[in-house]
Each structure stands twice: as structure tokens, then as C-alpha cells.
């Protein structure tokens, strides 16, 4: 629900109201599309062995692109010949705000610790699947049952994961994988 309020009567002229209605329509389209996009992401295949991991990096990238599309729509609307000065002013503010938001999102992406991602992506798909389930707290027998592999295969994957991570125990690997998954 969006609302346009003021403490003073007749604070908004027709152009401001139309600009607000346009913005509401854009927000509605973005939110509708977000649900459709989420459903599409859910339907993506998980790959050969490992789960389909949606990380905060993916979300940040998605948001950056969605904000860019809103900015593009505002740019297009601003170029329309019949746009009043008041609406043009509101559109310029939207364009400035979206550019600022995009810059902030990009800065946030650049400030992240790449270590957990680098370590996780160094694993094979099978090792990634083991690491994710390990982070969920599964023991070796549960890992084997969940993945449909032998206990020896699980132990082999765990040894390789510990070696690649340069760590001594599963708890340390679990913590590092959780950091990656939380991104």
C-alpha cells in the first residue's frame, strides 16, 4: 500500500498526483515481476549433484538490474513530449535516487569478503553438495543417505574439502560454508 499525504490541504497538484500514480504502477509491476522471478529461480534446475544456491550476491546483482530497469523507465517517461515540468522534476528525482541506489549496491558488492566464495567455488559440484549438507549439521551416515552415495565416498569428499579449505575439522568448514551461503 502506498500513500501520498500532507499536513496542508491541496499540497499536491494534479501533476504530482499523476507522477505518484505512475510511480505506484511501476512499483506494482516490479513487485509482480519479483514474484514471477522468484518462482522462475525456484524452477531452475539444481545441476548435476549440488543444490541450486541463491546467495546474497545473486540478490544484490538482481536488485542492481531491477533498479536500473526502473531508472530506464523513468528516463523514457521523462523524454515524453507531454510531460509537465512538475512530473519531469519528480522523474528526475527518481532517476537520481535510482542511480544513487545502484552505486550503493555496487559498493556493497565490492566490500564483501571473497574468501568463503573462493574456497567454496574451488570445490567440485559433488564436494559442494557435501559441504552444504555438512553446514546443515548432517553426520557422515546422513550425508551418504541424502546424496545416495557410499560412506567411503562421503569420507573421500570430506577429506578433499578439508584439504582444499586448509582446515582441520568439519565445524570450521561448516562455519565457512555458512558464511558463503549467507552472502
Question: Features of this protein?
Answer:
mainly alpha, 8 helices, 183 residues, transcription regulation, 2 domains, Arc Repressor Mutant, subunit A
Give a summary of the structure in a few sentences:
By secondary structure, the chain is mostly helical. The chain contains 8 helices and no strands.
- Report the sheet-strand fraction: under 5%
The helix content, as a percent range, equals over 70%
Major sheet summary line: none
By DSSP, the count of extended strands is 0
Please report the number of helical segments.
8
> What value does the average pLDDT take?
83
- Class by SSE composition: mainly alpha
Give me the Rg, rounded. 24 Å
Shape: elongated
Q: Unreliable stretches, pLDDT < 50, 5 or more residues?
A: 47-52
**Structural domains: how many:** 2
C-alpha termini separation: 30 Å
Order of helix and strand elements from N to C terminus: HHHHHHHH
Explain the overall architecture:
The chain is mainly α. It folds into two domains: 14-110, no CATH class; 115-182, Arc Repressor Mutant, subunit A (Orthogonal Bundle). The protein has eight helices and no strands. The chain is elongated and about 75 Å long. Mean pLDDT is 83; it is low at 47-52.
